[in-house]
Design brief:
single chain, globular
């Protein structure tokens, strides 16, 4: 679950993502390019939502969560959690440890 004021995004099994633009009163299913279980989400300062799936892919959407796009090729291992470092980089955890992914390298084509 990722929430910002009125925008709420829920993600889970088989890449299923639902988004609400009214605080959870109504929902729509999002367009997801990879039908792989999403394990973690994080909202970044520019308003995008970043998703990590079991295939090790990083995806993103605008704050409304309506359409996701692939941001990176697979990291080669499942990503179990996402977070942000104090300097704004994306942090991804996996069985190999913590991976730092500078957000400046993440696409913002949906903006």
């Amino acid at each position: 679950v990722t929430q910002r004021a009125e925008y709420v995004v829920l993600a889970g099994l088989r890449g299923t993502v639902y988004a609400s633009a009214d605080g959870g009163y109504s929902w729509s299913q999002s367009v997801v390019p990879a039908p792989v279980t999403i394990l973690s989400t994080v909202r970044v300062p520019d308003g995008r939502v970043i998703y990590a799936n079991q295939a090790g892919q990083i995806l993103s959407s605008q704050k409304d969560g309506k359409q996701l796009q692939l941001e990176t090729r697979s990291l080669g291992m499942p990503v179990s959690a996402l977070g942000l470092s104090q300097d704004g980089d994306l942090l991804a955890t996996s069985f190999a440890g913590v991976i730092r992914l500078p957000l400046s390298r993440q696409s913002s084509a949906n903006e």
